[in-house]
Amino acid sequence: MSATAWVVVVVLVAVLVWAVTVYNRLVQLRNRIANAFGQIDVQLKRRYDLIPNLVEVARGYLAHEAATLEAVIQARSQAQGAVAAVRAAPQSASAMGALAAAEGVLGGSLGRLMVVAESYPELKADATMQSLSEEITSTENRLGFARQAYNDQALEFNDAAAQFPELVVARLLSFAPAPMLASTQSDEERAAPRVKF
User: Fold this and answer.
1) What is the pTM of this model?
2) Is 50 helix (H, G, I), strand (E, B) or coil?
3) Which is a Pfam family this sequence falls into (predicted)?
4) What is the per-residue pLDDT for 60?
């Protein structure tokens, strides 16, 4: 083989090695996103498991606040459906947006329930209610950290897939940008819940 042929072979091998390296890095970053969502999913399951217990404890004290309790139960159900959709299609921006919206509604419902519970000293003093409230607060904190970790991984993946020359491999192999999680979608969700008696 001539020197030119050797140069071509070496360049082709170098490009192939580079492409494989970039592909493997993008796959690794995508898997980190899946792991980060898995951590969110664990905390969401914990939250969803705690909510019925909280509602049952509150139900005895808040018999005339049935609408608040039902709103929490309905929001929990919708959020569970949304998280199942994300599990089925983790790269879907629309599924991730629906999850964020459902979680926003659930968070608002839980906030209203907690505000209502504050108005009932006997419920507030109930040991089970205190324990469940602390568990939910702890879970909410863990969710916040897990969402932050997810967004950090999504940002790292999106940055890697959007920078040249990795962009070439990402586009050729259809690496779609990872959706980011937003805690709020609108000004209404950012507003503090108001409870009127």
Assistant:
1) 0.75
2) helix
3) LemA
4) 77
